[in-house]
């Protein structure tokens, strides 16, 4: 215990007693032994609980979870699912977009820069794909795709834990689609436009295509007669009335 002296406005000398650290520790030990609680601590807890608009449970939830980050994370997952469907149907007209093969998974990781050649390589992607898929399957679902991203996130972003790295990895994939590198595009030059536009054809060539530009096949090259009939020897079904009128 320390005693400090100070003078008030009237000139009187007043003693101020300041408790030392040893006294405070003894006070805490006494409270623990008797089972009592410090009244100052109780007063602070009561003030915290009585704050308007904040319940103790809501305060705890607010400290553990950030609503903004949760919303951004869920939005990234939804956008990543859209990208998953785009890559899942790439190169396969029969694909439904619900499942993805290993080739398209590797393309997704390459086009979205999940593969950086340093932390994550194509071999790492193949290993993770084999790990998350079923034993006899050759495809993965979106749930298994998320498991693969959980495996790749700490590798792609070294020095960050899984909770920090996973949203960053979703950010790389969200809103992306397959890159058509090396694909031959239709020429739109004026010199070849009249050669590729079927609506500008003339003569017999014009008859070989329909209005949409699709070829008619043999029917566009030859005039095929109607050889249908009631029996094998009779040809020209439905032409009897026309012949009678002509006679």
Automatic annotation (TrEMBL):
Biased composition annotated in UniProt, kind: Basic and acidic residues: 204-224
Subcellular location: Cytoplasm
Any GO BP: positive regulation of protein polymerization
InterPro entries in UniProt: EF-hand-dom_pair (IPR011992), TPP/p25 (IPR008907)
GO terms, molecular function: tubulin binding
SUPFAM superfamilies: EF-hand
Region called Disordered, residue ranges: 34-75, 203-247
Highest rank taxon of the organism: Eukaryota
Biased composition (Acidic residues): 35-48
GO CC annotation terms, alphabetical: cytoplasm; microtubule
Keyword terms, alphabetized: Cytoplasm
Family to which the UniProt record says this protein belongs: Belongs to the TPPP family.
Name this protein carries in UniProt: Tubulin polymerization-promoting protein family member 3-like
